[in-house]
Amino acid sequence: MAVFNPQQLQQLQEQAKRTCGYFSKAQLSELQSQLNCSLDSLLKALLPVAASFSQAPISHFNVGAVAYDEITQSAYLGANLEFSHQALSLVVHAEQSAINNAWLNGAKEISFIAITDAPCGYCRQFMNELSTSKRLSIMLPTLDTKLTELLPSSFGPQELDNPERLLASNIVAIKSFSSDISSKLQSHLQHAYAPYSKNFAAVEICTQTHGVFYGRYAENAAYNPSLSPMQSALSQLALAGLTIEHANVVEVTLVQSEGFENQQAVTEAVLASYNANIKPKYVTAKLA
Ligand SMILES: [Zn+2]
């Protein structure tokens, strides 16, 4: 089994912090020659790096995941994120975090995902929404399998006659915004995946010294494993090695499509539990 030594792991963790858990094709090839191993083994060897970004104040159970995009041949780390003063339903699982990370960075076809532990039922359902769900390989420490093996007789987008899939959805056309937003936030809104509710939504978190973080809404045919834009953005913050309490957040903007706004309450609740001084700015978008 290919493994990195503690010093290499430390270096990789520092590197991953700077890129929010992104490893390019060139970096993966270099690491593969360092370990002299297959790509599958390398993705598994990166799991401890992914798990080091876990924030699990409730369970103390650190989970890491690495998603691989076939098109760009790059990898994206993910880790579980728990909120100590919020409902457990807000927890972001490592698989969601890695897939969200890949999606926000333009990945189109996740062909395999390595995970430190077997995916829970919730994550199996979340992954079933992917464009690649029928051929997605799942690599666990002691078992390599397929999502179709782990989730037979599944309920997915096809049951609701939804032709779109997560990572392969239409670009949302926007007519106007209630106030100005950055072009990046606009682009994230246009790439949000909300085929069931049409509640397209995205979040921008501006920090004083650590840059800007984005999140998008990702729905699921079963509704429950949907990922809110705030969870999506906070997961990105965690992959930069930050928490919202220590990131010097100066502004949070939530943009949602007009008439369907249902992300406001959850955004406020999460923020209030950390810092009551930050009031999110709300913007609505008129769809074209
Ligand atoms: Zn899970």
TrEMBL record:
Quaternary structure, from the entry: Homodimer.
Active site, per annotation: 95
Protein's UniProt keywords contain Magnesium: no
Co-factor(s): Zn(2+)
Highest taxon listed in the record's lineage: Bacteria
Residues reported in the UniProt entry to bind substrate: 80-82
A GO MF label: identical protein binding
Domain CMP/dCMP-type deaminase: residue ranges: 38-158, 176-288
Cellular-component GO terms for this entry: cytosol
Entry EC no(s): 3.5.4.5
Family: Belongs to the cytidine and deoxycytidylate deaminase family.
Alphabetized PROSITE patterns for the sequence: CYT_DCMP_DEAMINASES_1, CYT_DCMP_DEAMINASES_2
GO biological process: nucleobase-containing small molecule metabolic process; pyrimidine-containing compound metabolic process
Protein name, UniProt field: Cytidine deaminase
Taxonomic placement: Bacteria, Pseudomonadati, Pseudomonadota, Gammaproteobacteria, Alteromonadales
InterPro entries for the chain: APOBEC/CMP_deaminase_Zn-bd, CMP_dCMP_dom, Cyd/dCyd_deaminase_Zn-bd, Cyt/Deoxycyt_deaminase, Cytidine_deaminase-like
Residues that, per the record, bind Zn(2+): 93, 120, 123
